[in-house]
Amino acid sequence: MMRWMAILFATVWLISGCGDKDGNVGMKSPDGSPVTFKPHEVTCPQCNMPLKSLVDSAQIVLKDGSVEVFDDPGCMVLWMDAHKIDPKEVKTWVYTRDTHRWIDAKKAHYSQTDPTPMGYGFGAYEKDAKDRISFERMRLRVLRGLTLKDPRIRKKLLGY
After folding, report:
1. Is 66 left (phi over 0), alpha (psi -120 to 50) or beta?
2. Mind giving me the DSSP string for 45-101?
3. Number of domains in the chain
4. Does residue 7 sit within a domain?
């Protein structure tokens, strides 16, 4: 009996973590600007994790003004791809590590080695520096799986 209860509990726990949760219900931005939110009050629609910080978070403002908030720029890229959304057709925002403000994600410069919430490694910066890449290059690397999640890439970029 206890074994069946443990299996049932594990199944419910796994399913609840894999569902299509939407912690951003009702978030709107009629003018396309980034929305204000508090950490731990919204959930990333890609990975279903609560946002723990503004740092590394990203937002998409869709054509109808609804907003999706992500805990990692990599999650934003994967979610747009899964929903067949062209980044050129929506407003995208990232919270930068250097200036601590929201900027257009397409104008940001991305590190490839930062410890981001989901481990993709692409921290956003307003100011360019050596080895930082463009939004489009970051996007292609995420879509191709060329992130710090890949042990070969991690070894090449970080040495371990």
Report:
1. beta
2. TTT-PBP--STT-EEEE-TTSBEEEESSHHHHHHHHHHTT--GGGSEEEEE-TTT-S
3. 1
4. no
What pLDDT does 39 receive?
Answer: 86
* CB count in 10 Å sphere of residue 127: 11
What is residue 103's three-state secondary structure?
Answer: strand
Tokens of 56: 């590394």
Tell me the C-alpha distance between 122 and 45, whole Å.
18
Residue 13 belongs to a domain: no
Residue 8 inside a domain? The answer is no
Confidence band, pLDDT 50/70/90 cuts, at residue 133: very high
Task: Identify whether 14 is part of a domain.
Answer: no
- Measured distance CA(123)–CA(105) in Å, rounded: 11
